[in-house]
Amino acid sequence: MAVRSDTRPAVLALAGDIVCVVVFCAIGRRSHAEGLTLAGIAETAWPFLSGTVAGWLISRAWRAPTAIAPTGVIVWVCTVVVGMLLRKASSQGVAVSFIVVASVVTAVMLLGWRGVAAVVAKRSG
């Protein structure tokens, strides 16, 4: 009988990253008085979500999904860099101020939940 590894941590971590990116995009749309429709959020989020997926593949995040480094850092950098490149390619805004804000906010979100997970894991065992 083959031993099957538990994929729950990776699935939950990927879901956490997706939620962070979607929340970031929804907050951005709200702060700029853009509609909070599903289509609008999807239009804003797809470049960043593509970057998140690229980061997961490059870092092989499923191996250590809650690690801040290297997993979280790679996922974060790819989310921002690929996201901005795709925004530029699709004629969406990439002002320097937006790049700075997106970098800081996504760092706090994508690395922050991993930091919290590390503290919780350390305290529980």
Automatic annotation (TrEMBL):
Write down the Pfam families for this protein, in alphabetical order: DUF3054 (PF11255)
Q: 4Fe-4S: present as a keyword of the record?
A: no
Coiled-coil blocks: none
> TM spans, by residue?
12-29, 36-58, 64-86, 93-113
Cited InterPro entries: DUF3054
Q: Which UniProt keywords apply?
A: Membrane, Transmembrane, Transmembrane helix
* Name recorded for this polypeptide: Membrane protein
